[in-house]
Amino acid sequence: MTQTVASGSEQNIQVAIRRALEGTPKIELTAVFPCEGPFEVQLPVWRPGRYEKGNFGRYVYSMRGKQSDGTWVDLKKSTLHKWQVPEGVQTISWIFFADLFNAGSTGVAEDILYINPVNCFLYHPDHQDWGYSIDLIDVPENWSVATGLKHSDGQWHARDVQNIMDSPILAAEALTHLSYESQGIPFHIWIYGKDQPDPDSFMKDHIAFTESQIAHFGSFPAEHYHFMYVLPERDVRHGVEHEDTTVIALGPSAKSQTKAGYDELIGIASHELYHAWNVKRIRPAEWTPYDFSQACPSRLGYVAEGVTTYMGDLFLFESGVIDLQGWCLLTERLLDRHVNNPGRLNCSVAESSYDTWLDGYEPGVPGRKGSIYVEGAVLALLCDVRIMQLTGGEASLQTAMRMLWEQFGADRIGLTESDYWSVLNEVAGAVDALEDLRFNYAEGVEDSWDDLVAAMEWQGLELTKTIEDGRWHVAIINA
């Protein structure tokens, strides 16, 4: 397939976005590609942070190309998420459904424009180095715009496909903005919603866990960072990590003013910030770089999400955001889910990581699989305690994560299972220090309860479980 490609600085895709609020909320996108057909354009089939096919093509109402004589023609598909662009066409226009307000979606209303480009932006499969320039053509000048993208000459700019697909945009008529600095890095908190958490407490807790995480890693991997909170009047609880941004959705917005809702927001925020190192940089080889055109299964989901779940909660404790009792309550909830899921005894957490692409975010067949978040966090806890035991408290799982950041994450070297366990064993002081944990609980389906009891006991905590109405209930007591 031949095409004419523009040269130099013109190799930039120009995208204009307009809200379409008549009837079902939608957005209209128009993109000018720096080449003339024939070529193909691709819509992502999945998004980072949710390791399953998103099938975003189902949200596309129409896809048209503008011919050289100014007329528009419907584009034909070559696959479910790819369209053929005929010769002479540079400009493409499409309409996308925009009435979802979870943390990885696209949604619009009279007072908000919220876009995850990985849902709705087209890219040229053969030119993923091309940049993007974005016009928000119907966003009023008095609205605030939150995004990690660079801004100049009235447009927002992305350096390439990997950058644009990892850069959500939140624009709203009323957008609360708080900011702070940690280790010279500017951090921004943006909040959309009718009801919002107390700003002073919110800022204080963000500063605490941010400074603690940066101190343990030794540096921050981005030039700036944005916490983007979407608090709609619909039921939602969700967070998604990005290179220099996270979007966290919780609704209805009044939840954020309750203790439980506030604690959820802070817990998700600590989890997502930890992802700035783990997953966004310390990343499985299968996701380095992201291939948005197809499923990309990996057996390391338990590191991506399990370690992050464990560390996100641990850093709330380390930073003083919660006390020991608060950490015990979070861990009790985690272990409740663990012991009440028989699937962990059927499918290993490494296999469950691979199979998220089948049914990882659905209940699925009863008792078939484990959770990369829950079983992964339990394994992280056991690894953490083992390393501390073998090193007399001189090292921990976080020591290993910092080493992984320095050896793999900083230089964007894809991580393998062997790499991960080799570093953990090195930190623990022996080549086979954690091999039983890997064999039994990462690649195997052994019951972890006795090891959990022993790990808690070593930390001065008593772990018990009782059964009531056919369900196990876990308790952690400060012995």
Name the features:
479 residues; alpha+beta; Immunoglobulin-like; Neutral Protease, domain 2; 3 domains
Plain-language structure description:
With 479 residues, the protein is α+β, with helices and mostly antiparallel strands. It folds into three domains: 4-172, Immunoglobulin-like (Sandwich), CATH 2.60.40; 175-269, 2-Layer Sandwich (Zincin-like), CATH 3.30.2010; 277-290 and 297-479, Orthogonal Bundle (Neutral Protease, domain 2). The chain is 31% helix and 27% strand. It has 13 helices and 24 strands. Strands 7-6-10-3-2-13-16-15 form an eight-stranded mixed beta sheet. A hairpin with a 2-residue loop joins strand 8 and strand 9.
A few lines on this structure:
By secondary structure, the chain is of the alpha+beta class. It contains 13 helices and 24 strands.
Chain-wise SSE layout:
Blueprint: E1 4-5, E2 12-20, E3 26-32, E4 35-36, E5 39-42, E6 60-66, E7 72-74, E8 76-79, E9 82-85, E10 91-97, E11 107-109, E12 112-115, H1 117-120, E13 131-136, E14 144-147, E15 150-152, E16 155-158, H2 161-164, E17 169-172, E18 176-182, E19 185-193, H3 199-217, E20 225-231, E21 236-241, E22 245-251, H4 259-274, H5 301-318, H6 324-339, H7 349-354, H8 356-359, H9 374-390, H10 397-409, H11 417-428, H12 435-442, H13 449-458, E23 461-468, E24 471-478
Parallel strand pairs: 2-13, 19-20, 20-22
Antiparallel strand pairs: 1-4, 2-3, 3-10, 5-9, 6-7, 6-10, 8-9, 11-12, 12-17, 13-16, 14-17, 15-16, 18-19, 21-22, 23-24
Helix pairs in contact: 3-4, 4-5, 5-6, 5-9, 6-9, 9-11, 9-13, 10-11
